[in-house]
Specification:
Length: 189
């Protein structure tokens, strides 16, 4: 419902054309590959591929679309990871609707737009997790067993356990659930 309302609102702008909408990150990536797209507006947390992972995939493909994240998460870890992934805009969902349209226009012009107040905090605490550690921790947080994570990532169960042990140590957590909670709270997961 929110996706449809947002698309309808932006489609009312005279200089915008909504090409398509997607309910998850993998579907979005498939649609982006099929269409000529200037701006991709995404959320951080989506099924199958997060908004940051979507931006990373587009960067790997050297796709010219500029990615803008619109989210409720004002977490510095998310912002930092998003910017490192080539995201050109990061706005919060509580921003006025006219500022969203204006931000999209500025991003289209080549500028980078970030919600006020997030920039300073984003570079105060570095994300200690590697991409592999983050992926394994996310799968663990989703309830997958070590064996299932190993099968999904083409790693051995021992390697998965080593990654989880390293994450727990880095985050000074009690266990994998506590590590996921800490990483999620900081915006690293």
């Amino acid at each position: 419902m929110l996706l449809g309302a947002l698309a309808a609102m932006l489609d009312m702008e005279p200089d915008f054309e909504i090409i398509d909408t997607a309910s998850d990150g993998k579907e979005a990536l498939t649609l982006i590959k099929k269409h000529t797209v200037d701006i991709v507006l995404t959320d951080i947390e989506m099924p199958k591929l997060t908004g940051i992972e979507l931006a990373q995939e587009l960067k790997k493909l050297q796709h010219p679309a500029k990615v803008m994240i619109l989210t409720t998460f004002a977490r510095s870890g998310y912002l930092r990871r998003a910017m490192d992934s080539g995201v050109k805009g990061y706005l919060l969902k509580d921003a006025p609707s006219n500022s969203l349209a204006n931000a999209i226009r500025k991003i289209h012009e080549g500028k980078t737009i970030v919600a006020t107040g997030l920039v300073t905090n984003a570079w105060t605490e570095a994300d200690p997790l590697s991409d592999n550690e983050r992926k394994i921790l996310r799968l663990s947080f989703e309830g997958l067993s070590t064996k299932e994570i190993a099968a999904q990532t083409s790693l051995s169960a021992g390697t998965v356990r080593n990654y989880l042990s390293e994450v727990i140590s880095k985050l000074d957590a009690n266990n994998r659930i506590d590590a996921a909670r800490i990483a999620k709270q900081k915006g690293w997961l």
